[in-house]
Specification:
Number of helices of chain A: 3
Structural class of chain A: alpha+beta
Helix content of chain A: 25-40%
Mean pLDDT of chain B: 68
Order of helices and strands of chain A: HHEEEHEEEEEE
Largest sheet of chain B: 7 strands, mixed
Mean pLDDT of chain A: 84
Low-confidence stretches of chain B: 131-141, 204-221, 245-300
Low-confidence stretches of chain A: none
Strand order of the largest sheet of chain A: 1-8-9-5-6
Shape of chain B: globular
Largest sheet of chain A: 5 strands, mixed
Oligomer: heterodimer
Largest interface: A-B, 33 and 28 residues
């Protein structure tokens, strides 16, 4: 009787240990799965940038000819800028191949914009635009702050941009307001 | 016993391990199903709650699953809101042909959206700032040692008017009849004995004083075709968060400096449209501290100041939900200086 009790105690102990090991194993497997097998491809910041660019492209594609729409772009915690190249622009990032495109790139866009957009950037091709013009204004009705890029910064979570599309002139204008 | 034969203990262990795996799978599957089948509001509410209560080092694994509701008011089935071009999940409300009913539809939708926002965010009592991507050191520096308080925000809803409402005589007449404050004052929240206003103000006020109504006819109204219901929260290090938040937060003072707006197409038309933002201006025009002493004027903007439910321990601050002009980037930036949570 006593032996049987001892045996049961041993068996119970062994079962408990097995369960603990099994549960730990499952947790380790899940952690391994989420951390190693499905690694985060992009940081939160990069995901935000890619999402913002997708939204801008969706607006451009959905808006009518000669229409002007505005949207708020959710900002970033680092410095990024929006740039664009028409079909006739020679100095385009390689990512655009032979198409017109808009890119959202990390950095300040101070020097060679196309070069800055080669790495650490997201680009979307847009079909058929010979001219893509970007301008940044100080405020609504304010002076032009800079041409060619629209900047985003950590101090302004939102940026208002206006998009104007003209299919007959094959042009796209994007204006940013501080 | 033959070599290689399983003992009873091993079989039981195996069964238990398989059982545990099945239970974990069922739990995971049900959670995924719950997330999939839940309404966006419920999903957002759950993610806010979980994020505010799990330990800090686990918060980054709980993403805030909140996206603004996009509501488009229109007079016809054909007309869309151009503000939402290229965007998904737009909820279109075709207004009644009866102008009175149409105006009530707009009022009810805005009041409910504001109530939902307040309720979804734990009536302002949950620390939603937790779990941002900032590391702990930055977070502490920004929120506890910086002189500038930085509010976090969440855009609960975006409400827009279609062209047929903006550009037709009938549409303009409907907008002239819209009075959200009056609706909030005289209508009960579904399932409650209290009016929207009583709920938003902790039952402190049941009607607007005459003086305040007069104050609504102020100059400087801006017109807008889109408003956003913004939940904004400021974390402070003081036990008296109201003074701390509004006393030093120059960001919040922007509410006072910014002319308010009416959701109306007619330039300069005063006394029509959506006037709720005016209350914020009324409360803040005298300065940050005045709001503290003059809380009764801060009516339709749901406010909570006090200790938050937070995994970080004792955290104090103020939260509010306010309707703001979505096109006013400066104001939006001031309300969200610490970061935007969720999507746009």
């Amino acid at each position: 009787m006593n032996n049987q009790f001892n045996f049961n105690k041993k068996a119970l102990f062994s079962v408990v240990i097995s369960i603990v090991i099994a549960v730990l194993g499952i947790i380790l497997f899940l952690l391994f799965y989420y951390k190693i097998i499905t690694p985060q491809q992009y940081t939160y910041e990069q995901q935000n940038a890619a999402k913002a660019l997708e939204k801008i492209k969706a607006k451009i594609n959905s808006m009518g000819d000669e229409q002007r729409v505005e949207m708020l772009v959710q900002g970033f915690s680092d410095e990024w800028f929006l740039a664009g190249w028409g079909k006739n622009d020679l100095d385009r990032p390689d990512k655009c191949f032979f198409s017109s495109c808009i890119c959202i790139c990390k950095g300040k866009g101070l020097r060679n914009v196309a070069r800055e957009c080669q790495a650490n950037s997201f680009c979307e091709k847009l079909q058929g635009y010979e001219v893509i013009e970007l301008k940044e204004f100080e405020g609504s009705g304010g002076n032009v702050k800079q041409q060619g890029i629209i900047t985003f910064s950590a101090t302004s979570p939102f940026k208002r941009i206006e998009i104007e599309k003209n299919l007959s002139k094959k042009s796209l204008k994007i204006y940013g307001y501080k | 016993m033959k070599k290689g034969q399983l003992t009873a203990t091993q079989i039981i262990s195996l069964v238990l391990v398989l059982g545990a795996a099945v239970i974990i799978f069922i739990f995971w599957y049900n959670y995924s199903e719950f997330v999939r089948s839940s309404t966006p509001d419920e999903t957002c509410r759950q993610s806010i709650l979980v994020r505010a209560t799990v330990p800090r080092n686990l918060q980054e694994y709980v993403p805030l699953r909140c996206s603004p509701k996009k509501i488009c008011f229109s007079l016809s089935n054909r007309d869309e809101c151009k503000q939402f071009i290229g965007e998904e999940n737009v909820f279109k409300i075709k207004l009644s042909t009866n102008e009175e009913i149409a105006a009530r539809q707009i009022e009810e939708t805005i009041a409910l959206a504001q109530y939902d926002c307040w309720s979804m965010t734990g009536k302002g009592q949950l620390d939603i700032s937790s779990g941002t991507d900032k590391d702990v050191a930055d977070y502490i520096t920004d929120n506890f040692f910086s002189d500038e308080a930085k509010p976090f925000c969440l855009i609960c809803s975006r409400i827009a008017l279609s062209n047929d409402l903006l550009n037709t005589e009938k549409g303009k007449r409907i907008l002239e009849k819209v009075d959200v404050i009056d609706y909030m004052e005289n209508n009960r929240v579904p399932g409650s004995k209290l009016t929207f206003l009583q709920i938003f103000t902790n039952e402190q006020i049941s009607s607007f004083p005459k003086k305040f109504e007069e104050a609504l006819n102020i100059e400087g109204l801006q017109n807008t075709d889109q408003i956003a219901l913004v939940f904004s929260q400021i974390v402070t290090k003081k036990v008296d968060p109201f003074t701390d938040a509004f006393g030093k937060a120059i960001n919040f003072a922007a509410l006072a400096a910014t002319p308010t707006f009416a959701l109306t197409p007619v330039q300069g038309l005063v006394g029509v449209g959506i006037k709720v933002a005016i209350t914020a201006v009324e409360g803040l025009t005298v300065g940050g501290i005045a709001l503290y002493n003059n809380k009764k004027n801060f009516k339709t903007v749901n406010t909570f100041c006090g200790r938050f439910t937070s995994a970080k321990g004792e955290v104090y601050g103020c939260s509010f939900v306010a309707p703001v002009d979505y096109r006013d980037v400066k104001l939006m930036n001031d309300l969200c200086k610490g970061g935007v949570l969720g999507n746009l």
